Amino acid sequence: MSTATALKTETEADVSWQTLCTKNDLVAFSGVAAWIETAEGPAQVALFYLPTGPNTPGLPGHETELYAIDHHDPFSKANVIARGIVGDLKGQPVVASPIYKQHFRLKDGVCLEDESVQLRTWPVRFEGDEVWIKA
Amino acid sequence: MNVSHSDKQQLIVIGNGMVGHHLVEQLIERGATEAYRIIVFGEERHLAYDRVHLSEYFAGRDAESLALCASDYYAEHGIELRLSEAVTEIDRDNGEVVTDQGRYSYDRLVLATGSYPFVPPIPGNDRPNCLVYRTLEDLDAIRAAAEKATTGVVVGGGLLGLEAANALRGLNLDTAVVEFAPRLMPMQVDSEGGELLREKIESLGVQVLTERATQRIEDGEASFHRMVFQDDKVLETDLIVFSAGIRPRDELARDSGLEMGERGGVVVDDHCLTSDPTILAVGEVALWNNSIFGLVGPGYQMAKAAADTLTQGELTFRGADMSTKLKLLGVDVGSIGDAHGDRSPGARMFRYLDQIKQEYRKLVVSSDGKKLLGAMLVGDNSYYDTLMQYYSNGLELPADPASLILPSTEGAPTLGADALPETATICSCHNVTKGDVCASIDTGATDLGAVKAETKASTGCGGCAALLKSVVDHELESRGVEVDKSICEHFAYTRQELYGIVRVEGIKTFSELIKKHGRGLGCDICKPAVASILASCFNEPITDASHIPLQDTNDTFMANMQKNGTYSVVPRVPGGEITPDKLIALGEVGKKYGLYTKITGGQRIDLFGAQLHDLPDIWQELIDAGFETGHAYGKATRTVKSCVGSTWCRYGVQDSVSMALHVENRYKGLRSPHKLKFAVSGCTRECAEAQSKDVGVIATENGWNLYVCGNGGMRPRHAELFATDLDDETLIQYIDRFLMFYIRTADRLQRTSVWRENLDGGLDYLKDVIIHDSLGIADELEKQMQDVVDRYECEWANALKDPEKLKRFRSYVNDDRPDPNIIVTEERGQLRPA
Ligand SMILES: Cc1cc2nc3c(=O)[nH]c(=O)nc-3n(C[C@H](O)[C@H](O)[C@H](O)COP(=O)(O)OP(=O)(O)OC[C@H]3O[C@@H](n4cnc5c(N)ncnc54)[C@H](O)[C@@H]3O)c2cc1C
Ligand code: HEM
Ligand code: SF4
Ligand code: SF4
Predict the structure, then answer these.
(1) B683 marked as part of a ligand binding site
(2) Domain Nitrite/sulphite reductase 4Fe-4S: where (chain B) (predicted)?
(3) Do B553 and A98 touch (CB under 8 A)?
(4) Nearest CA to CA, how far is A61 from chain B (Å)?
(5) Which residues 6+ apart lie within 8 Å of B41 measured at CB?
(6) Cα radius of gyration (chain B)
């Protein structure tokens, strides 16, 4: 039932942005997982979509709508981060691991319970209806 | 022969009851284990237990939960505890005590042997099924005898007699109380109070016979015994419990020649020393100033004095207050100081009697009307705390003392926590004053639990629980500590308050709720909590777009995530009844998708190891085979376990399977603060283990007994008997109300057991609300439950119809590859995570 989107790469001043999926694949205020190609090989990424709008909860000054963070949970060693609950702690958007409930900051992947642990994050953005990621 | 350690003195304590144990605690607190090697002898086989709450043994508490300390407490402090070993002789000449195991020498000796129930010298009093009410063993004997009995009589209408009567009633016996005096509780109440008490108790179905002296007990005709009274009237009964007073267990002291009271008891002085200064006595065996104190509070005070005596401290015992407040057979009775007014010449009285509401109150005040000397309460103990403070602190009474016992309309002077002096005793069992409570708050205690742990207040008989709470709340408030009960940083409300808001304002989505009443985006605490509230109220599919981001992963994917990121699938098998065809269907699905299968503790089958993207296909096949989702992933109704009941079992008295199916089909899909487990057994043999469930139903000859608030798990708790012999309809009605009341008032992730333990007013209050509808909300609760029931829809069937919802069940949005991290290996013919 998956819609395998052809990977399309665009090389532009040493920066490689790739398309990942469409806006329609995302789930508002929640996560989905996707495969990406990185310099080190394939990786699994969790995409979180926090839209702003008149009928959605929001943070003061919260604009960023899209985050890409490692799908791999270093505590349980399972690929599950996209299935965690998103929210904010003291105004910082976070995701809680669905297995042992540690919180990871969406912005930089730092674990709030243990700051020595940090998940990889990637820049991502909308390009029209498409989701693009830089890896 | 046991030789005492050279550099330490040997201290022997005889008796491991409430006071003996308290003495040991006090000695440890004073560091006495440095100076003494301590040996404690206990005749009972149990570690010291809470005799005051003995009756709760029948309500499901066991010896372990009644124990006064952890089982290794004595050993941990280097104290030798010798249970099941009675001391049979004190050899004062050689400084030794004798047991059937040997002789033990002592330097100091403490008698804490308590008392025994007095059995009047009536011919026939030694017949089988003539029992007493003092120890766990006694209660075991009563329980065993009650199984073969239908009627029971308690001889003695005092405090303990009425407690025993309540216990017999709880064992489903037709119960009567026989009292020698003209009224019940002659020690605590006067004739007017006694009459009221009698009316109330008779209205509960307990027969009360006063002015009856039993002449003999012989074989009965219809029942096992026949009791013959002074006027040749007779009463037949299967079981007799004597509760005609207690007598000190002073035989060891008497035989060894210690000074005794005329009517028994070992004479002690203010230091708890007996006539032999190496020997002390404490508790109910000790006679001080010609009085025996049959309450635990004075016993504890003696234990403290004795501990001080043994460690060169100063504390002495100077008598104790015998004021008490009790709930006997659900009837409040309170007695303060000189309640009869016969010990205070010149005393004046105020009395209030309401024969409609059945309340009686009496004040005994000094001749100048300024001081309270005593008080008596029947029917409503809410007056007790205030009166007790006037009495024990010698506070000056208001100009019109009668206002203290008039029904509190408005303006009745209540003595607030702030009006109490620092010296006011809050907990008399542990002698904790308001000053002690304040001190513990000043040094960092920030809630009731911490104050209790530190001061021990309200951990004895518990009579002061309400007063302590109001003092702690008041003190915290006055220090500007705001007791923060907010659910998380996004809502300044408790779960219960959020529930109220959702109901009252009819808010149906998280985003509306957080916009109106919260801040930020929410988090993994408030989102699932609100999701659960919304589901309990409106029962909309949790996979709807507005609800899906609120759910824990298990709810999101309607399956249980396991440690490697795969899911397990548990279809509902109502009542544990399953057809062979359905079993085959389950087997086929398991085989096709390579799932590990295991029977669960809830009589259903768990299929493990499903990958996210396989879940919809698996469920399509299960639904086609007639299954529904089992909500194993949710804080929701889980299973209703059942035994086969009367259909197959030769003992069964009702059809437990049909009832289990009915219960499970009614409450399936109900979401609640925590998971809910049920069971139905077909007879008292209880094969379905209903007494370990949130809601347990056990069949009786006449219907169903309902048990509530049990659980297994990490801290098991027996469910408590809530109502008996219900018909099908009433049973469901009570369960409806009970569950909705729990959903309305519990904290997030609070099981019914913990909720019940924290419920002010306890089981009685719960019964009032559910059975007697004391809050007037029963109809509303039933209606709310019916709403949820009417809106039930299998969540998986709902999701499978909606392609938008199925979008989520892709392991990756841009690829069909399975997760390469999930590696399995074979074990015992099945796959499991490698
Ligand atoms: C059903 C019930 C309800 C009660 N309710 C209340 C209440 O609400 N409030 C209240 O204040 N009080 C209440 N009491 C009274 C309270 O339990 C007693 O005051 C208290 O237990 C007395 O403590 P104790 O240590 O002196 O005696 P016990 O607790 O009786 O302990 C004495 C122990 O010594 C053992 N012993 C005796 N002789 C020997 C020997 N020779 N060798 C070794 N061991 C020996 C006994 O077996 C016993 O275990 C109640 C009592 C009962 C039975
Ligand atoms: C597992 C169940 C029970 C436990 C663990 C328990 C334990 C306690 C404790 C520790 C207290 C002190 C008060 C407090 O801490 O708030 C207390 C109070 C009390 N208990 Fe129990 N108890 C239980 C059930 C019962 C039952 C079934 C009865 C009645 C037969 C009962 C009668 C009382 C009474 C009357 C008080 C005084 C409460 C008050 O005045 O507020 N308890 N109990
Ligand atoms: S509880 Fe009773 S009816 Fe049910 S199986 Fe056991 S013995 Fe039979
Ligand atoms: S008892 Fe422990 S290991 Fe076993 S299923 Fe429960 S949580 Fe897991």
Answers:
(1) yes
(2) 634-755
(3) yes
(4) 11
(5) B12, B13, B14, B15, B16, B82, B85, B86, B87, B97, B99
(6) 31
Is residue B408 over pLDDT 70? no
**Torsion of Cα atoms, B727 then B733 then B737 then B742, to 10°:** 60
Please work out, in degrees rounded to the nearest 5, the angle formed at the alpha carbon of residue B316 by the alpha carbons of B280 and B135.
Answer: 50
- Which residue in B545, B811, B816 is closest to A33 by CB distance? B811
B170 lines ligand 2 (CB under 6 A): no
DSSP β-bridge partners for residue B561: B567
pLDDT tens-place string over residues B16-25 = 999 999 999 9
Does B5-115+248-310 carry CATH code 3.50.50.60?
A: yes
Number of structural domains found in chain A: 1
Residue B1: count of CB within 10 angstroms of its CB? 7
Contact assignment for A3 to B814 by CB distance below 8 Å:
yes
CATH number, domain B321-415: 3.30.390.30
B763 Cα–ligand 2 center, Å: 10
**In terms of C-beta density within 10 A (0-12 exposed, 13-18 middle, 19 or more buried), how is residue B260 classed?**
middle
Please tell me the distance in Å from A25's CA to the nearest CA on chain B: 7
Is a pLDDT exceeding 70 seen at residue A11? no
Rounded distance, CA B91 to CA B258, Å?
A: 12
Determine the Cα–Cα distance for residues B329 and B327; give it in Å rounded to an integer: 6
Q: Indicate the CATH number for domain B557-790.
A: 3.30.413.10
Domain that includes residue A91, residue range? 3-134
- Please give the Cα distance from B99 to B104 (Å, whole number): 8
Residue B81 tokens read as 């505890």
Substitution target in A70, A85, A101, A102 with the highest count of B β-carbons within 10 Å is A85
pLDDT band at A7 (very low <50, low <70, confident <90, very high): very low
Give the residue carrying structure tokens 């709310």: B784
Q: Does ligand 1 have an atom closer than 6 angstroms to the CB of B248?
A: no
- CATH number of the CATH domain containing A43: 2.102.10.10
d(CA A105, CA A67): 10
Distance from residue B711's CA to the centre of ligand 4 (Å)? 15
Does the annotation flag B523 for ligand binding?
A: no
Q: How far is the CA of B705 from the centre of ligand 3 (A)?
A: 14
Return the closest-CA partner of residue B707 out of B735, B730, B687, B683: B735
**First-residue to last-residue Cα distance in chain B:** 61
Best residue for ligand 3 mutational test, from B655, B656, B684, B689 (most atoms within 8 Å of Cβ): B656
B119-244 CATH fold: FAD/NAD(P)-binding domain (3.50.50)
CB contact set of B344 (below 8 Å; sequence gap of 6+): B338, B364, B366, B373, B374
Distance in Å, CA B760 to ligand 2 centroid: 10
On the question of pLDDT at A100 being above 70, the answer is yes
Residue B642, SS3 per DSSP: strand
Question: If you count residue pairs, one on A and one on B, with CB atoms under 8 Å apart, how many are there?
Answer: 133
Take atom 4 of ligand 3 and give the residue whose Cα is closest.
Answer: B682
A24: helix, strand or coil: helix
Give the 3-state secondary structure of residue B181: coil
Closest approach of B798 to chain A, Cα-based (Å):
18
Residues of chain B with CATH 3.50.50.60: 5-115+248-310, 119-244
Q: Which residue of B has its CA nearest to A1?
A: B810
B643 annotated ligand binder: yes
Confidence of residue A91 (pLDDT cuts 50, 70, 90): confident
Asked if A86 lies within 8 A of B549 by C-beta distance, the reply is: yes
Which of the ligands is closest to the CA of residue B756? 2
Q: Residue A124: CA atoms inside 13 Å, Cβ hemisphere, count?
A: 30
Chain B's closest residue to A47, CA to CA, is B813
